[in-house]
Design a protein that fits this description.
With about 450 residues, the protein is an all-alpha fold. The chain folds into 2 domains: about 1-205, no CATH class; about 205-450, no CATH class. It is built from 17 helices and no strands. The chain is globular. The two termini are about 20 Å apart.
Length: about 450
């Protein structure tokens, strides 16, 4: 949560310092860094929770699991650097791509890999506070650098110093991660285990497609906006996606919180799955649906108020992306169920369909229908719906408990977004509030809503 708040504050400052065109360049840089991280590392992270929890219970260390992940990362990093060098040798460096831009992309990508690996092991060990410290170092240093820039007013513009601030922040985060790993984790000296490496690879490789899909869904929209729109459009949609990412930060936290607990409960012979699915269906999904139904009409006026008139076009895509946020939050809540069950093939297959849908809709909505920067938001919503449909069906099949309210929260959220796009915001806000109240009242009368506290379970006991 802390790193998410720091990241939001950084976005607020960056939009004060940069024009929409300059912010578009920054968005492209962050998207490219995300590509580096996702293709090299993200697909091998989820299985670590179960493997490390098992090794920790058996031996009291995570040396074999950490070493196996390091071997995988070393191999994928070598391949990635080699491909980049071959591309440069074959086609040269793209025009306008500065050394500073490339350096910032590389440091951000590899810095995120290091921080994520250490944070994953800390979360598996139940040390969530230390993991939060590792994850918060980078946005904290970046925010401080932006504050210094705000007071200094550099003569050559703000974009080059901001890129330098990104490099400094990821460097500081990497140093912090190494220091924490050396003092707080039982992963040294390394211990090679061919069996663990094979298990990690078998569990990870289906997630390669999932990682590619996450990269495409998260970045291809920005690239397509750049191709079919203006440089300012990239900045406007980039800001909308940054606001969306503040919510996605919660989705990235859920596997780290839930998967280790599910894995430990499974190892200890406890059945926590049925209770977990009941909470998701009867509490999490209804409350998220009502909250986002209320929030969508507020997006356009809040974006204008917080980020200024220059970024007011970001309001409409931000509202549309709230529906995708609902779907992805639900999918992230169910992801740990599939990961602990070892059902990563489902994740890979769904990824192919979702990413294909997203690309096709981007081409149609941006390239053919020319609907503007609302188009990629709609594409993200439909791709996220496909993911939610498959995840909810697969997770429900793992338990005798039926997952309730799979689709009902979408109705008031979609109604609210349509009203936001077509009506003045006060009227849209009124209709959104009525839709949220009516939705919760209907679930209450049907006895499909449960907001009462439950007794402690294996998922709430560390």
């Amino acid at each position: 949560m802390l790193s998410g708040l720091l990241a939001f504050a950084s976005v607020l400052l960056a939009t004060r310092l940069l024009t929409p065109v300059e912010y578009g360049e920054l968005s492209l840089l962050l998207a490219t860094a995300g590509v580096v991280y996702a293709l090299i590392a993200s697909w091998s992270a989820p299985p670590i929770y179960a493997l490390a929890a098992e090794e920790l219970r058996r031996t009291g260390t995570m040396r074999q699991t950490s070493t196996a992940r390091a071997v995988v990362l070393l191999g994928t990093s070598t391949v990635g650097v080699g491909v980049a060098l071959l591309a440069v040798a074959a086609v040269g460096v793209p025009q306008g791509l500065s050394v500073l831009f490339v350096s910032a992309c590389a440091v951000a990508g590899f810095g995120s890999i290091l921080c994520e690996h250490v944070a994953t092991l800390l979360e598996t060990n139940g040390r969530y506070g230390v993991a939060a410290l590792v994850q918060s170092t980078r946005p904290a240093v970046y925010l401080i650098a932006l504050l210094v820039l705000l007071l200094s007013a550099p003569a050559d513009g703000y974009l080059p110093p901001i890129l330098g601030a990104l490099i400094a922040s990821w460097t500081a985060a990497g140093i912090t991660a190494v220091g924490v790993a050396a003092t707080a984790l039982a992963i040294w000296p390394p211990r090679t285990s061919v069996a663990t490496l094979r298990r990690l690879w078998r569990a990870s490789w289906p997630l390669i497609l999932f990682s590619i899909s996450q990269v495409v869904i998260g970045t291809v929209d920005i690239y397509f906006v750049r191709v079919f729109g203006s440089a300012a459009d990239v900045g406007h949609y980039g800001l909308a996606y940054q606001c969306f990412s503040m919510g996605l930060f919660l989705t990235s936290a859920l596997p780290g919180l839930i998967a280790p607990r599910l894995a430990r409960a499974q190892v200890a012979g406890q059945d926590a799955l049925a209770a977990y699915l009941r909470v998701i269906g009867r509490t999490v999904l209804p409350l998220l649906g009502a909250l986002l139904t209320l929030a969508a009409p507020l997006a356009p006026p809040l974006v204008r108020l917080v980020f200024g008139d220059a970024y007011s076009p970001s309001g409409a895509p931000t509202a549309v992306l709230s529906v995708a946020l609902l779907l992805l939050l639900g999918s992230a809540a169910l992801g740990p169920v599939l990961l602990v069950a070892g059902d990563t093939r489902v994740i890979g297959r769904v990824a192919v369909v979702a990413v294909t849908t997203n690309i096709a809709l981007d081409l149609v909505l941006l390239g053919w229908l020319r609907v503007g920067i609302v188009g990629p938001g709609i594409a993200t919503v439909l791709a996220s719906f496909i993911t939610w449909l498959a995840y909810s069906r697969a997770a429900a099949s793992r338990s005798e408990i039926r997952l309730e309210n799979r689709f009902l929260p979408l109705l008031p959220a979609a109604f609210s977004v349509v009203g936001t796009l077509l009506l003045p915001w006060p009227l849209a806000m009124l209709l959104g509030g009525l839709a949220a109240i009516g939705f919760l009242a209907y679930l209450r009368t049907q006895r499909r809503l449960d907001i009462r506290p439950r007794r402690p379970s294996p998922l709430t006991s560390g």
